[in-house]
Amino acid sequence: MRSSESLVVRSFSAIGWSYSGVAVGVVLQIAGSILFARMLGPRITGVFAFGLLVFPPFRFICEFGLGAALIDKKVLDRDDVQMAFTGSLILSILAAVAWFLCIPHLASWIREQQYVTALDGFAIVLLCLPLQTICTAILTKRLEQKYVQISSLVGYAVGYLGVGLFGALHGWGLTSLVIGFLAQNVITTLFLYLHTRMSLKLAFKASRASLWRFGSHVAAINVSNWLTGSLDNMAVAWFFGSTKLGLYSVAYGLVRTPADKIVLTLQNVLFPASALARDDNERLKKACIAIIDAVFLLTAPIFCSVAVLAPTMIEALYGRSWLEAASVLPPFALSMVLHCLIVVTSALLWGIGGVGRDLRIQWFSAAIFLIAVILAAQYSTVVVAWTTFPISVLRAALGFVALVKVAKIHVLRAMRAFLSGGLVTALIMPSLFTIDVFLNRSGATALFRLAVEIASGGLLLVVLGALFRKRLLTPELRLGLESLRRAMIGAKSNA
Question: Model confidence over 32-61: pLDDT tens digits?
């Protein structure tokens, strides 16, 4: 019983530190996106977005799921860490060479060969990933999210924003973004290593077939997730060019950045916690329902409201020259609600032995998405953007069904988790849309409209939460919130 309580306290502590960093991280990333977009324009933004778009497959080669495999192991020893680091280091060298060979051809796809030298800087980032990945896995395994968040925030603030903005102000163009991205990863890796002090000894003879087997499944899922998250961007780059990609990627990043910060951080806690608790089925059921309830309640009102306020948001944040991006923002915003559910269900499935099911779901969805995107690209970027929504619905539905089956949760009990988020969204979204229309007709500026709508949305959330918390929330989420309150009291008393 004590170990069970300890896991709960450690999990909530990890979540607390994660979301402390998320709040700051989201603000920094959105601010950085706005500053660079306004300073560098759609074309340079689009070329850098293309570099980030094709970078993940090379990163997956470096990592090969070995970090996730270390987290999955019940008992982690030094040989496991040394083998994973050695394997990842070898793969990163191969991936860096592959990047140098491939990037001239990739740049020719978007007719931007003059930027090949700047894009070569991504290869150096690949060499940082072995140490960064293994150190992150060690800290995640221990549920020590505090240090993961600190390293990430410092790396982004000092590296990407600090170095990148310095370069942008001095006319470096695309190079400023690439060097900022490199500085971010170097600083993050250094911070992680200084805390873990993991051994850098290489192990060429150690054999850990189970790590490679689990890692290969994770790598395959990561590739399929990348495809379903990137095929539309790739189609825009191929068919419409870097400037259109810049507009498209700004709208996509505006909602994808906070969505990823919300759920990928949670994933880093759910995966190890569910792996540790996989033998306690009833506790897993309650955790699954509570997490889905919390994630849907948090994301549905926010992203659905962004969808109906798209023109106001783009004009207020990026200026009228970026208004074309508003036409593709609504499908992205709606898809992010489902994306968040996809990520948390995948993390739970991985932790309770359903990684094979998740692999099949992601590749099936990626195949359908490929066909849909190719057809949509024959028309316009707006049609391409709208293909993301039905595919997200499919992935979320299949993932939810798989989780219900693997965790043996009654369907009606699980469906109850969508009630609170659905009702709150149905009340807040039309209210904010009505306010936006009224203020727009009154001649209010976009920035003023957005400020009023954010304040109104926050007030509505607080009022609805106070009035209907006991009626709307699932018993599982209410129990989880009570556990969080006790954990916080316990942490304070032990401090």
Answer: 888 888 888 888 888 898 888 889 889 888
**Cβ atoms of 475 and 287 closer than 8 Å:** no
Distance of alpha carbon 231 from alpha carbon 227, whole angstroms? 5
Amino acid at 199: S
Which residues contact residue 247 at a Cβ distance below 8 angstroms, ignoring those fewer than 6 apart? 42, 46, 322, 324, 325, 328, 381
Helical ranges in 377-410 per DSSP H? 381-386, 388-407
d(CA 186, CA 145) in angstroms, rounded, equals 19
Rounded to whole angstroms, the Cα distance separating 250 from 46 reads 9
In one letter, which amino acid is 308? V
Residues near 374 by Cβ (< 8 Å), separated by ≥ 6?
A: 235
How many C-beta neighbours within 10 Å does residue 210 have? 12
Q: Could you list the residue range(s) of the whole structural domain that residue 240 is in?
A: 2-494
Residue-wise pLDDT for 168-225, tens only, equals: 888 888 899 999 999 999 999 998 888 887 777 777 665 567 777 777 777 777 787 7
CB-based burial label for 478 (10 Å; 0-12, 13-18, 19+): middle
Tell me if residue 437 falls in helix, strand or coil.
helix
Dist. CA 3–CA 9, nearest whole Å: 10
Rg of the chain taking only CA atoms, in angstroms: 22
The answer to whether residue 271 scores a pLDDT higher than 60 is no
Q: Identify the burial level of 84 via C-beta atoms within 10 angstroms of its C-beta, where 0-12 means exposed, 13-18 middle and 19 or more buried.
A: buried
Can you tell me the distance from the alpha carbon of 47 to that of 340, in angstroms, rounded to the nearest whole number?
27
- What's CA 152's distance to the chain center, in Å? 14
CA 216 to chain CA centroid, Å, is 21
In this predicted structure, what is the pLDDT of residue 38? 85
Residue with the two structure tokens 């873990």? 196
For helices 78-109 and 2-63, give the axis angle rounded to 10 degrees: 40
pLDDT score for 415 = 85
State the pTM of this model: 0.74
> 493 burial class (0-12, 13-18, 19+ CB within 10 angstroms)?
exposed
Q: How many domains does the chain have?
A: 1
Check residues 457 and 206 and name the one with the higher pLDDT.
457
pLDDT per residue as tens digits for the range 472-493: 777 767 776 666 555 545 544 4
Q: Which long-range contacts (CB under 8 A, 24 or more apart) does 456-464 make?
A: 456/431, 456/432, 457/301, 457/302, 457/305, 457/428, 457/432, 460/427, 460/428, 460/431, 461/301, 461/424, 461/428, 464/424, 464/427, 464/428
* DSSP letter, residue 321: G
Q: What is the pLDDT of residues 345-366, one digit of tens each?
A: 887 777 666 677 777 888 888 8
The mean per-residue pLDDT over the stretch 420-424 comes to 87
The dihedral region occupied by 144, where left means phi > 0, alpha psi between -120 and 50, and beta the remainder, is: beta
